[in-house]
Amino acid sequence: MKAYYLLLAGTALTLSACGNSNNASNSTASATASTTASAPANAAASDQTDLYKRLTSGGTITVGTEGTYPPFTYHDESGKLTGYDVEVTRAVAAKLGVQVDFKETQWDAMLAGLDAKRFDAVANQVSLTTPERQAKYDKSFAYSWSGPVLVAPVKVTDLANWESIKGKKSAQSLSSNYAEMATKYGAEIIGVEGLAQAVELVRTGRADVTLNDHLAVLDYLKKNQNSGLEIKLTAPATEKTGSGIIFRKGEDATNAKVSEAIEALQKDGTLAKLSNQFFGQDISKQ
C-alpha cells in the first residue's frame, strides 16, 4: 500500500562564533519563518494520510487482496490483476472518483496487514463471521452472497429437499462445515481433500452428492460446462453470508460512503453484470 508523506527539511541555522546580536536576530527570524511555513505543510500531510479525506477529495486508497484466488482475485492471461472482488472495488473507486492501489498479500497476512495500516481496506471475500473479527473490523454493504449448495449429476431426480440425502454417499472434506451439514441430514461421508476431488467422485459415480460453497461451485460449473453436474438444492437466504470491503474499526464515515457506492452499483446493474461475467449469474443479492 502506498503512503504519501511530506518530508519537511528544517532550515540549517549557523551562528557565528562571536554570537553578535544581528546574527542571533536573523537566526530567530529564520526559525520563526521555518515553523510558520511548516504548519500548513504538516496539515497537508495529515490530510493525505486520513482515509476519509482522501476518499472525498479524489485521492488514492490502498486495498489488500490475494491475487491468487480465482475467480475473486487473480491474474488473467495477460498478467492483469482482475476477478470479481477486484473489479467491484475498481467500480466503487470510479463511483467515488478516487484511485485504487491494490497490494497483493497472502491470506494469512491479510488482516494483519490491515491492522498494521499497510493498506486502508481489504477486498478478498471476507464475511466477518466470527466474534473476534467483528470486534476488530467493519464490513461494507455486501457485494456477494453465498451459502451451501447440493451438487449431483443432472440425471438424478430424487433430491427434492435436504432430507433427501439421507443414506447417500456425500463427498466432503472431513473437517468442513459442509461435512457436518451432510452428516446432520444422514448422509454417509466419503472423505476428500477439496472441491475438485469431491466433484470428480460425484461425476464418476463413486459418490452420490457433495455439499459446498455456492460461489465455488458456480465457478467450477462455469469452467466445466460438460461435467454432467448441476446444483440441485440451494440453502435459504437466511443461511447465506455476505462478503464486503473490510475496514478497521473507526472508519465509519468511509464505510458509509463505500456502502452507498456499492448499493448504487447494485441498483444500476453493475454488480449483476460483473456477477454474470465471473459466475454466470447474479451473486450480488441475498
Question: Mind explaining what this structure looks like?
Answer:
With 286 residues, the protein is of the alpha/beta class. The protein has helices at 21-48, 51-55, 84-96, 107-115, 131-136, 177-184, 195-203, 214-223, 252-267, 270-279, and strands at 60-65, 74-75, 81-82, 99-104, 121-126, 137-139, 144-146, 148-153, 169-173, 188-192, 210-213, 229-234, 241-248. The radius of gyration is 27 Å and the shape is elongated.
- How would you describe the shape? elongated
Which whole number gives the mean pLDDT?
86
Secondary-structure element order, as H and E?
HHEEEHEHEHEEEEHEHEHEEHH
Q: What share of residues is helical?
A: 25-40%
Strand content: 15-25%
Number of strands: 13
Give start-end ranges of low-pLDDT stretches. 1-49
Q: Count of helices?
A: 10
Radius of gyration in whole Å, from Cα? 27 Å
The secondary structure category is alpha/beta
In this structure, how is the largest beta sheet organized?
6 strands, mixed
> What's the end-to-end separation, in Å?
32 Å
Give short descriptive properties of this protein.
single chain, 286 residues, alpha/beta, 6-stranded mixed β-sheet, 10 helices, 13 strands, 40% helix, disordered N terminus
How would you summarize this macromolecular structure in one to three sentences?
The protein is of the alpha/beta class and 286 residues long.
Task: Please give the structural blueprint.
Elements: H1 21-48, H2 51-55, E1 60-65, E2 74-75, E3 81-82, H3 84-96, E4 99-104, H4 107-115, E5 121-126, H5 131-136, E6 137-139, E7 144-146, E8 148-153, E9 169-173, H6 177-184, E10 188-192, H7 195-203, E11 210-213, H8 214-223, E12 229-234, E13 241-248, H9 252-267, H10 270-279
Parallel strand pairs: 1-4, 1-5, 9-10
Antiparallel strand pairs: 2-3, 5-13, 6-13, 7-13, 8-11, 8-12
Helix pairs in contact: 3-9, 3-10
